[in-house]
Every structure is written in C-alpha cells, then in structure tokens.
Design goal:
- This protein has 370 residues and is an alpha/beta fold.
- The chain has 10 helices and 15 strands.
C-alpha cells in the first residue's frame, strides 16, 4: 500500500499543508518542534485511530480552531482510496471513505495500515505492562477492526464492576448484581485474551527471526504471552468457566481492595533475552534492536493479513541505529515498504538510505522539498 498524498488542515501546527509522496522512502528533516512528529502522528491516527502521544482531540486541532482534518489518498490493490478524518475540539470524530461519511469512525480502520516506531516505543521494553498491552491492542485493531468494540466493551464492564467493588465497603453489592458483571467481564475478557494469545503465537517467531538477523544471532529472544486469566484450554467455554472460577477465588480480596484483580487489563507480555527479562537487559542499542525486531514482526504480520505491506513510520529512531543496523533494516524492507523517516540531521544516515529517499524539510508547520 502506498500513501500518495496527505492533506492536513488545522491539525497540530499545520494550517493547510499538502504533502505528495513520490518515492518508497521519504526523509522528513527539521529542527526540533517544527512538526515532524505531528506529520507521522496524522498518518498513525488514520491507521489506528490513536496516537502514541496520547492526547485529547482538543490538543490535536490547531490552537484557536474548532476542527481539524486529516485527509489521505491511499493506493491499495491498484486503486486509490480517499480517507478523511475530522477532529473536533468538543465532539465526536467523523470518518469518510471516498467522500462517504461512515457510520462509525472505526470503519476507517484497516483502510490504511502503518507500523510506527518512535523513541517512546522503547517503553515496549523499558516500560510497564500497559505499554505492551497497548502494543498488542494497536496491532489487533489493524488486523481486526471489530477488536476496537471488544476493547470498549471490556473497558465499560471493568469500570462498572470496579465502581461496584469500590463502593462495597459502604454498600455491599448483591451477589446477583455482581454476578451479572462477572459474566460480562468473563465473556469479553476471554474474547480479548484469545485474540492476544493468537497474536503472540504468530508474532513471536517473526520477532525472533528479525532479532537474530539484526543482532547477528548472538542472543536468544523469547516472546511469551503471560495472560492474567488461566488459559489451559483452547475452548472458549472452558476458558470462561476457568476465568469465572478464578474470579470467585479472588472475590474476597477484590471486595477488600475495591478493584478487579483478574482479566486482560492485567496481562503481560514477557520479553526476555537469554532468559533475562529484556527490561533489565543491556544497552539502549540492544533495547532498540529488540523493539525494531518487534516492529518488523508486526509489519510482516500485517502484510500477511492485509495482503500488502503497511507503511513504516520511523520517528527520530533511524539515525540512532548504527550503520550496520540501518542497512539490515534497509535490506529487510527493500522498496516494497513505504517508509517515512524523520530526523534532525542527515549526517548519521547510511548513504544507501540517502540515495534512495526523497527528502522534505519541515519548518514551523510548512513542508517543502529539500
Ligand atoms: N494543537 C496545536 N496547535 C498548534 N501547535 C501545536 C499543536 N500541537 C502541537 N503543536 C506544536 O507543534 C510543535 C511540535 O511539533 P512536533 O511534530 O512534535 O515537533 P518535532 O519536529 O520535534 O517532531 C510544537 O511547537 C507545538 O507547540
Ligand atoms: Mg518529534
């Protein structure tokens, strides 16, 4: 898939900017705070509905304006699709495909696929479990847009159940009432956990493959799903049964603590290198290599499901890789994968990258050919 054109209106620090992409690789060059990350963020929003710099839509719209718009012309399977995402400072988003307003904003998901890697993604290794859960969810959303609704449903159920548990000291909930929420937690929770488990099953071998390729095969990577619900069966009914039993066992504690202790909101993904948790392991460079391997695995998986490679967005991270790893990456993606890279300086780039890329400069929200 290929992003031909991006049009940003009142988005972040962009007033009205059209960017035409002509080459498989684009380098966006600019000083700090000029709008490099904002540009990639707009593509990520179209692809996933979220952004790695979590903010409310109010912050995404250019200051002093009521609404902003991200539009894209995407070429996929040989035809052009026009995507629009309208953002309002107080209100809902609107999505359009080829000019037709969609019933749900999530209908936009799956139209444009992108894998993003910024320095914040190093939290995948260094950060808490929620960074890894967010990563899984971000991939699943692109593979299976309905997953968004599942997540929303789970979040709602969890919130209700938690508020019930929180009030338990003063107003003990009736067993029937709690059982109602337990049942919903269990059905949506199992649906989420099964999808996450399947995802890891498919991602892990690819991540290991890339990690071996980039690190030169000196270290052994393990990627393991560590679900918070018991997962000893493949059968969803059995899983729901086991989840419910696990809740029952912890119910006293849950009532005491006023919160739900079991469920995919507490999942973890174990990343280890040579059996040492990756978070405790090694240098920035090693952690970067690991995240890159995870991202390339994500890319390969999305490609195999969507039938076309997603975009690769590298925000300020390529120049941080040594030349050897830059070349490994270049070999891996070739010209098949449209790649947009941001940087403050071209000096650290391998010459192969510079030769094959189109270079834009961004200055205070204005993009121009270098
Ligand atoms: N809603 C907004 N309206 C106007 N400017 C914004 C908005 N959100 C962010 N900015 C500005 O965008 C700039 C940061 O852009 P960013 O893309 O993060 O920079 P960089 O080029 O370093 O990646 C800052 O100057 C910030 O003030
Ligand atoms: Mg930036």
């Amino acid at each position: 898939m290929f992003l031909r054109q991006l049009h940003l209106r009142n988005f972040r620090n962009y007033l009205d900017q059209v960017v035409e992409f002509g080459a498989p690789k684009t380098i966006v060059l600019g000083e700090n705070a000029q709008g490099k990350s904002n540009l990639l963020e707009s593509v990520q929003l179209l692809a996933t509905g979220r952004t790695y710099r979590i903010s409310r839509d109010r912050e995404l719209v250019l200051q002093q304006k009521d609404q902003g718009k991200i539009s894209a012309m995407v070429e996929r399977a040989g035809s052009l699709v026009e995507l629009d995402l309208l953002l309002r400072i107080n209100g809902r988003r609107t999505a359009r495909i080829n000019g037709t307003t969609q019933r749900r904003v999530s209908d936009l998901l799956g139209q444009l696929n992108a894998v993003c890697f910024s320095s914040l993604d190093l939290d995948l290794v260094r950060g808490g479990p929620e960074s890894r859960r967010d990563w899984l969810d971000g991939v699943l959303v692109q593979l299976e847009p309905l997953y968004v609704h599942l997540l929303e449903q789970y979040r709602r159920v969890l919130q209700q159940r938690n508020s019930l548990l929180k009030q338990a000291a003063e107003h003990p909930p009736s067993p029937d009432e709690l059982a109602l929420w337990d049942a919903q937690l269990v059905t949506t929770g199992v649906a989420i956990s099964r999808r996450r488990a399947r995802l890891i099953d498919r991602l892990a071998p690819m991540a290991i493959h890339w990690h071996t390729a980039i690190s030169g095969g000196r270290e052994a990577l393990h990627v393991r799903y560590s679900p918070k619900i018991p997962m000893l069966s493949q059968d969803p009914v059995q899983l729901q049964h086991d989840f419910l039993a696990a809740i029952d066992e912890k119910k006293k504690l849950e009532l005491m603590r006023g919160t739900s202790l079991i469920g995919p909101h507490r999942d973890e993904v174990d990343l280890s290198i040579d059996e040492t948790p990756a978070r405790l392991f090694g240098s920035q460079g090693q952690q970067r290599t690991l995240v890159l391997a995870l991202k390339l695995a994500e890319l390969a998986l999305i490609e195999s499901v969507a039938g076309e490679p997603p975009l690769l967005l590298l925000d300020d991270v390529l120049a941080e890789l040594d030349l050897n790893r830059q070349n490994q990456l270049l070999d891996a993606i070739g010209d098949r994968v449209q790649t947009i890279v941001t940087t403050t300086h071209l000096g650290a780039f391998d010459s192969n990258w510079l030769k094959s890329a189109e270079i834009f400069t961004v200055n205070a929200g204005i993009v121009s050919p270098n």
